[in-house]
Predict the structure of 3',5'-cyclic-AMP phosphodiesterase.
Amino acid sequence: MPSVSTLTTDAPVLLVQLSDSHLFADADGSLLGLKTAQSLQQVIALVRAEQPSIDVLLATGDLAQDGSVAAYQQFRQATHPLAAVARWLPGNHDNVQHMAAAAVQSRLMEPRVDIGNWRITLLHSNVANKSHGYLEDNQLQLLAQSLSEAPDRHHVVCLHHHPVAVGCEWIEPIGLLNAEAFWAVIDRFPQVKAVLWGHVHQPFDQQRNGLRLLATPSTCFQFAPHSADFNVSNEAPGYRWLRLQPDGTLQTGVSRVAHFDFEPDYGAGKY
């Protein structure tokens, strides 16, 4: 697949974000009563119908629920028809070593993409066996280096855990614990135009000092917005698209699967 590295003045970049697919080694595996591989396929079909030409595909964590190599292989196979430059980053349910094994002979785990007038940087915020996120020093250094060495590009920074409050009381403690350190780096670089994350299973679109803050629905079930305790809504799975313009502006939106019928079964296994 092509990986464009030259600057251009006239071509927008179309980016698609898939997040939190929670796949199992068993293709029929289910979570809260939902077959997660099936719902991922529905979202991919929607992407293919709506976005005939994609430049970059980002998978922003929790690709697998069980952390198995087979689950990541399923994700890789399912998304292959999208025919885009693709990158993965890990979430709190992921096994980084198994992700890397499934990504063998590819660039899926590389932390950067240069395309058009943009650079996309992907960070690992996962902490082994924990739900919250944390950026180790090497990740903060990677971020600072990636931003500083490309001052003429516009930047999107991606991670799994939310670095700001999203309005769900139960989710806040399992966000990025050292968000202040993250923002201390970001605030040094005005060329950062957007920060993009997963984890929260719901859309989020706000601004911080002119910087766009974005999260996306899960490709499986959704967390109910503004809930004090863990609560799953009946909203449909979906994805986020971003059109990155050469001048540093962007347009974005969320699209969801139609005719989705799901009632969560809270007795069908722990999330």
